[in-house]
């Protein structure tokens, strides 16, 4: 179940938006919990597939955010090795999930596209 | 990338100038030098229409290394390298490619008093290229990862400067001569590499009240329109005046030579005393006037040649700033004749102070100074720098005629007085090299 979301969390899926309406909020919470990575204490942006753009965006993270990401990943790997999950009160809640990488990623993609535009000229 | 050069220089005897095209046909062209305008935001705007196909615009900011504080020593070095980083209006890539596309070039120079951003472009591309200059000087983003990518460049700059004894000796002289402000080095100190935050310094010093916008080869109206985009309400902090203390710094670096720079407190830029010091400097000798020639006409060289047969070089040194100045002699000698050479150089200045100065010498020195000055205005870089520094320091400019007249007005008693000042005042010395036989400043 965790693998299913990780597989889906390519950048295209991440960038698509579900409809932002009160009807969809319930569905999104259900889907978030069903994905299951929150049971390992991860956030959505921790599970993103690392291609070159994502790697550059991660390089640009401020130190604190980067350290938090590393900690969460380490904890999740440790739990996965032990075949355990966190107790329910420590699961990441949908409201607490911060898309910290998104602004940096958008910037990186924008810069790359700009370079490609100029290269065409 | 065309023309991204960041380099440092001292401003020496900034006096005024006039456009060289005046000499061509002043009755055909109307006066191209418009009066300096001051915008409500405090920005000073000056322009000179020299009908050249190339425009050159400079933004002069009072953000030299003298305005650094103890918490951010070296920030001007970073800013000097950071001019091509992402701004709010254009990414770093776009600035580079955009300027290249029109064949423009953007360069940054910084001195102890000013940061100068100058842009050369073809006259027709003025509007487009100015957008980049405005972005760089008013709205840089200072992204943390871009600033940390600058660290290798800072280290290279420092390594290159370390290789040059001339730069070392000049920096050490200023460090020894002043207690604050002017003692700050143009290069980032070792302990600050990687630890500098730029935003505070930028916010305090890059305000429109501390800037001047100078254009060569552009119409005044166009420059005024651009000037209106520079606006900021922050007034920034004042800076302390420089306090001269006189001291000594010696750097043992081995090798066979000694570079020694001996100076006293000189005159403030633009004053009559500064003219006297400049004439004295030319009198004593500033290097060969014939390319690759010997220095036999220089008084310093003649005097020192009597004291030693070993090779040496000596020039008089003068630097002026807005509230202080330095004047002295710079000698390069072999390690074991350093004592004789320095003493002989000092003896020569003392001789001038005692009045051994003929009218011929004085006229020659004055003519050389005038010629040097006027020739420095021949190039657009020299012209822009002169115009900008004058406008920023005093809010107005004086024409070259005024300047040459004020040089002419220097009398031999002024020069003798200047030499006496060197003789009697507390000296500063910085030396570099194999210092076993080099006297200390209190032994001179």
TrEMBL record, chain B:
The protein's predominant localisation is: mitochondrion
Domain (Peptidase M16 N-terminal): give its ranges: 45-190
Q: Provide GO CC annotations from the record.
A: membrane; mitochondrion
Q: Which GO terms describe its molecular function?
A: metal ion binding
Gene3D superfamilies for the chain: Metalloenzyme, LuxS/M16 peptidase-like
Which UniProt keywords are given for this protein, alphabetically ordered? Mitochondrion, Transit peptide
Q: Please report a single Pfam family linked to this protein.
A: Peptidase_M16
| Domain Peptidase M16 C-terminal, first and last residues per copy | 198-369
Q: Where in the cell is it found?
A: Mitochondrion
Report the PANTHER family cross-referenced here. CYTOCHROME B-C1 COMPLEX SUBUNIT 2, MITOCHONDRIAL, METALLOPROTEASE
Question: What is the protein name for this chain?
Answer: Cytochrome b-c1 complex subunit 2, mitochondrial-like
UniProt source species: Sinocyclocheilus rhinocerous
Name of the gene: LOC107717493
């Amino acid at each position: 179940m965790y693998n299913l979301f990780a597989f889906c969390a390519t950048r295209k899926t991440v960038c698509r938006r579900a409809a932002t309406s009160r009807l969809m909020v319930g569905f999104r919470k259900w889907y978030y919990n069903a994905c299951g990575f929150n049971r390992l204490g991860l956030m959505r942006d921790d599970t993103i597939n690392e291609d070159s753009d994502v790697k550059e965006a991660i390089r640009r993270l401020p130190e604190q955010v980067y350290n938090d990401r590393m900690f969460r990943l380490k904890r999740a790997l440790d739990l996965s090795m032990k075949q355990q999950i966190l107790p329910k009160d420590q699961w990441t809640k949908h409201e607490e999930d911060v898309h910290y990488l998104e602004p940096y990623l958008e910037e990186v993609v924008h810069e790359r596209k700009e370079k490609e535009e100029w290269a065409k000229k | 990338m065309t023309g991204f050069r960041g380099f440092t220089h001292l401003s020496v005897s900034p006096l005024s100038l006039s456009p060289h095209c005046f000499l061509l046909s002043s009755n055909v062209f109307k006066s191209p030098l418009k009066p300096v305008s001051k915008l409500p935001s405090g920005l000073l705007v000056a322009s000179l229409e020299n009908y050249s196909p190339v425009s050159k615009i400079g933004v002069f900011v009072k953000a030299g290394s003298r305005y650094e504080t103890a918490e951010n020593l070296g920030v001007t070095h970073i800013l000097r390298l950071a001019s091509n980083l992402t701004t709010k209006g254009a990414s770093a890539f776009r600035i580079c490619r955009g300027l290249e596309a029109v064949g423009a070039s953007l360069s940054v120079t910084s001195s102890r008093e000013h940061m100068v951003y100058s842009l050369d472009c073809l006259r027709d591309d003025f509007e487009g290229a100015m957008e980049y200059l405005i972005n760089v000087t008013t709205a840089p983003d200072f992204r943390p990862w871009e600033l940390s990518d600058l660290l290798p460049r800072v280290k290279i700059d420092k390594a290159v400067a370390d290789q040059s004894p001339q730069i070392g000796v000049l920096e050490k002289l200023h460090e020894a001569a002043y207690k604050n402000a002017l003692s700050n080095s143009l290069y980032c100190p070792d302990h600050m590499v990687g630890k500098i935050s730029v935003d505070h310094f930028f916010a305090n010093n890059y305000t429109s009240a501390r800037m001047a916008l100078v254009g060569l080869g552009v119409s005044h109206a166009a420059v005024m329109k651009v000037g209106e985009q520079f606006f900021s309400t922050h007034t920034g902090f004042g800076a302390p005046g420089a306090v001269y203390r006189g001291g000594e710094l010696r750097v043992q670096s081995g090798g066979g030579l000694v570079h020694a720079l001996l100076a006293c407190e000189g005159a403030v830029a633009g004053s009559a005393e500064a003219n006297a010091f400049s004439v004295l400097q030319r009198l004593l000798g500033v290097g060969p006037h014939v390319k690759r020639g010997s220095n036999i006409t220089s008084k310093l060289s003649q005097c020192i040649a009597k004291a030693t047969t070993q090779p040496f070089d000596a020039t008089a040194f003068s630097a002026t700033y807005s509230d202080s100045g330095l004047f002295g002699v710079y000698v390069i000698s072999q390690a074991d004749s350093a004592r004789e050479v320095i003493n002989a150089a000092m003896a020569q200045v003392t001789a001038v102070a005692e009045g051994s100065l003929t009218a011929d010498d004085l006229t020659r020195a004055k003519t050389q100074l005038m010629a040097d000055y006027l020739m420095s205005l021949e190039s657009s870089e020299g012209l822009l720098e002169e115009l900008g520094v004058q406008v920023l320091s005093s809010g107005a400019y004086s024409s070259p005629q005024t300047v040459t007249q004020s040089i002419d007005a220097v009398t031999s008693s002024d020069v003798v007085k200047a030499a006496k000042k060197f003789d009697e005042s507390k000296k500063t010395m910085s030396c570099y090299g194999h210092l076993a036989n080099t006297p200390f400043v209190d032994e001179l």
